[in-house]
Design a protein that fits this description.
- Helices cover 77% and strands 3% of the residues.
- It is an all-alpha fold.
- The protein has two domains: 125 residues, no CATH class; 155 residues, no CATH class.
- Strands 1-2 form a two-stranded antiparallel sheet.
- α5 packs across α6.
- The longest helix has 29 residues.
């Protein structure tokens, strides 16, 4: 019951932000989520004996989001600057054996957590951004739920026992199917709303249905691999969950791990589309 109630509250907040929030509100909310996930990642590094400084963790994430929102052309400069700061601090405050690993962990935190989450408000700001962002969320969430419940009940064949012993091929296949069903459901619903009311276009898309079907499969695959990547971090750090902030779900990182790979994949597809002028996806 805790798991269901937590999911309902989170979905309601995110849906309200996507539909009614300003871009800065979505960016601020995403930055808070990124900061909390970064703190959990810092816990992994602490378990490994190389804790990233707390002040640097929060400052680096905040600067990353501020640069993305106000001066996206300077984002790489900000990443380079905060990395050099961490390198210098580690060199003078830690043992020499930990300098490389602490600095590397900080860079991975930015690439793995901050960067993917900065893409969410940018996707929302794209043409058909509302539909694309909700499509991304639905593919990730529905796939995750299907994998959990179908895998628990019918799973027999292990998917990746070294990284995640509980994941099964049955759950993975159910996850792909769920993403396709719910993702296409959103696209068809958007078309229906547009037909009923031509002024309601926030869920309308102009690409053919098969493009979104392929996109659903691609995003689901990315989401499942994202889940496995976080499992690798947790198993390496010797922890079961990234945190306890979300009742019934574990930590923030446990709930965003699939999104951390799926969001960059969607952004890359959008970038390829824009570069080659392939359509309005």
């Amino acid at each position: 019951m805790k798991r269901i109630l937590t999911a309902i509250v989170l979905i309601a907040i995110i849906a309200a932000l996507v539909f009614f929030g300003k871009l800065w509100m979505v960016t601020l909310f995403t930055a808070i989520i990124a900061g909390l996930a970064a703190l959990e990642f810092r816990g992994f590094t602490a378990s490994g004996g190389c804790p990233i400084p707390l002040w640097w963790t929060l400052s680096a994430v905040a600067l990353f989001f501020l640069a993305t929102f106000y001066r996206p052309q300077d984002t790489i400069t900000v990443v380079a600057f905060v990395t050099l700061v961490l390198f210098a601090v580690a060199a003078f405050r830690t043992s020499l054996e930990r300098v490389l690993w602490e600095t590397s962990a900080g860079v991975l935190m930015l690439v793995y957590i901050a960067f993917p989450l900065t893409l969410l408000p940018q996707i929302l700001n794209e043409e058909d951004g509302t539909a694309l962002l909700l499509f991304l969320f639905l593919c990730v969430w529905s796939g995750d739920i299907a994998a959990l419940y179908i895998g628990k009940r019918f799973g027999r064949h292990k998917f990746s026992p070294r990284l995640s012993p509980n994941k099964t091929w049955e759950g993975a296949i159910a996850s792909v199917i769920a993403s396709c069903v719910f993702g296409m459901g959103l696209i068809l619903l958007g078309d229906w709303f547009t037909q009923q009311n031509s002024s309601f276009t926030r869920l309308h898309t102009t690409e053919p249905w098969w493009v979104f079907l392929l996109l659903a499969v691609t995003l689901n695959a990315a989401a499942q691999f994202g889940d496995l990547l976080e499992s690798a971090l947790k198993r390496g750090a010797g922890v079961k969950d990234s945190g306890t902030l979300l009742p019934g779900h574990g930590g923030i990182l446990d709930r965003t791990d699939a999104l951390l790979l799926a969001a960059p994949v969607l952004w890359f597809i959008i970038a390829v589309r824009d570069f080659f002028s392939l359509g309005s996806l």
